Prior knowledge:
This protein has 15 helices and no strands. By secondary structure, it is mainly alpha-helical.
Amino acid sequence: MNVIDKTSDKILKKLTGILLWNNHFYGICIAALSICSSLYLTGQLPSLTFLAMVYFGTVVYYTNAYFNENINEQNKDRAIWYQNHYAYLKIRQWVLFIIIIAILIFSLYQNPSLLTFNIISLGLLGFSFFLSYLYNFPEFQNNGLLKSSIIAFVWTIIGAYLPVYFNRSGEFENMNTIVTTLYCIQLFLFIFLLAVLFDIKDIKTDLSGNKKTLVLQIGLNNIMQFLVLPYIVTSMIIDYKLANSFSFTSIIWLLHCIFYLIVYLVSKKALTESKISRSILLVDGLMLIKATIGIIAWYIIH
């Protein structure tokens, strides 16, 4: 390996640590989804304080989840990085936690109505936190259906419902329940698909560990037929139901079709991917693509 190759490899590892292992990538993803959801469901951008809170909250949650990760062939790069940066990450966790609390207190001070919970909001938020806690138990992580459902539900609440809740304008009280429900169902199905595709990289480890992931239950060769294509068809049906409410035009339909084509192609590629860093960028990167296309489409409409 020459000097240039060594330098490039060092830079790549540094960027991977900063973006992926630090979990800033997931923070960017949840912020992008929140912006997209807020535009479609409230007609306005979420506040910077809200985006900062969900960004840092996501970074803290995923960092905590990977602290005691067992090293295997698929995750060894991340696990070793965590071991080497353990002291720094512990300090950062507390710093970010304090920042999140400060932001939350500031938000409540600026908008006291956030403390006025209705039964639906209280139930959704409470259940979401409860599921986030349960996700840390092996019994839930080893069950593919439960694992993917928990991930999809929590990300849907944070990425679609919370942006609406934190706006707390008159539009919140009068928002179209059917439209919001369909939007959330569509996002849930999307995140559920990503959670399943992300498990493909661990198929050998999961098989030897007797885990019941959906990849193993469905079969790798059946993922496209029984999961990806049904998602695309179902999501397009929901698009059709939402078309009038969101004033879809032909250019919007074209953008959505491009997105579904990307989902199909990425899913095919994910079937053969085993490296964790590439899986994060490839599979979870679809969240950024979905949010970006959605935001562009919204501004085209408006």
